[in-house]
Each structure stands twice: as C-alpha cells, then as structure tokens.
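ok so for the tutorial part 2 we go from a plain amino acid sequence to predicted structure tokens. step 1 is just haveing the sequence, like this:
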Amino acid sequence: MPSQQEARPPRPTPRPGADKRILLRDHPLFGALGSDLITRLSSYARTQKVKRGTTIFAKEDPGAALFAVSAGTVKISVPSADGRDAVFRLLNEGDVFGEIALLDGRPRTADAIAVTDCELVVIDRRDFLPLLHSYPEMALQLIEVLCAKLRRTSEQVEDATFLHLRRRLAKTLLQLAANSQPSANGRKVMITQRELGQIIGMSRESTNKQLRLWQTRNWVRLQRGCVEVRAPDALAAVAEPAPRLDLE
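step 2 — the prediction. this is what the tokens look like for a chain of 248 residues:
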C-alpha cells in the first residue's frame, strides 16, 4: 500500500501567464528595465480575475490603475448614443492597457470589456507614478508604447477611410489571427461577427455575407463566437493586392 506521501497527487505546474514577474519581464514596456526593478514592480502588482462580458472600466471612469493581460482577451471600445460600439483593439496576453488615464489623471477614454474569461495584472497609479519619476528609462519605454498605439489607431482610421470593406475585413482577420491560438486547420480568432463589423465599420449582415463567401472557398470556417482562419495567404492577397504593372 503506498504511503500517504506517495498517494498525494502531484502539484500542478503553474501557467507562465499567471506569473506577474514573467509577464512584466516579457512585455516591451518593462522587459528592458532590469531584474531588480521588475521584481519591485511585480511586488506592487496584484492579479484580478474577471468573467467574460465584465466591464473592467467604462469611459469617463477615473484612471486609477494600469492593466496587463495575463490570460484572455480584452476589447477596447467606445459606445455611441444609438447603442453601437466602435472597437479600437482586441488585447491578448502580454498587452498593457489603461495607461493614458493613468498618466494624465483624467477620466478613461474608452470602455475595457472582457471578451473571454480573463486574468489581469493590475498596478495602482499611486505605486506606478513614483517609479516613473525615479526611473526615466521606464517613461521612455512607455512613450514608445503610446506611439505604437497611436500609429495603429492612425492606420485603422486610414483603412476605414480608404480601403474597400472586403480588404478591411481580410486585413483585420489576419492581424487578429497573428495573436490567436493555432488550431488543426489554421488559427481560431475568438470574436463575434458583430465585433468584427464594429472594428472595420461594417454591419453584421455585410460581415456575415463576406465571411460566408470565404467559407465556401474554405478560406475561413465560421463557428459560434469564433472565426477560424484557414487560408491566410488567400486573405493576404485580398488585404494587400499585388500592384498593377505599368505596361506602357
């Protein structure tokens, strides 16, 4: 008969995403700051689990904390008076959000909503700002992150202004698939057709019509709350068509 110690079940291996220090170390905002500073920063951080559909913060809420996604997907959007949302970004593991209001002390500029069950790392403003004053390199890293987000927002506005709806949809699917989990036949993007339409400024009906056409070609597969990207090369040809040759 095995001893009581032998019969004890093995301890589960913790997920890397659940380790605050690993998450901070691997993120571009914090990774270059050195081991001692990351250890100090992680001592201020706390973890927060939120259920799918939970509003993490709403537009005009006080900006009291910085958030990093440890697991799951978070949607950043702005609601309109008629109930429609403009979706700016879908954030996945390793992404940081909430930094604008954290820095200037003004209200939140958008809603943050959990698209899936999420685990977040949270650092309060009262702990984060003194570190920025003490470590200018952290402020420079934060400026780079903010500039990258501004560039993505500018590109999104440019796409919405100049690109055909079909190209916008293909480009967005490819961007989302790059950060999604691989499946047997491609990559699964955990997003509804309504949310896809909100990102690219297309109605759900138009989004569904185009996706169903691509499904007949086996470029995508539609599932509940999910789009599986099966033919990224075909979508890339739609998103970035080859330049026309000047034959004159």
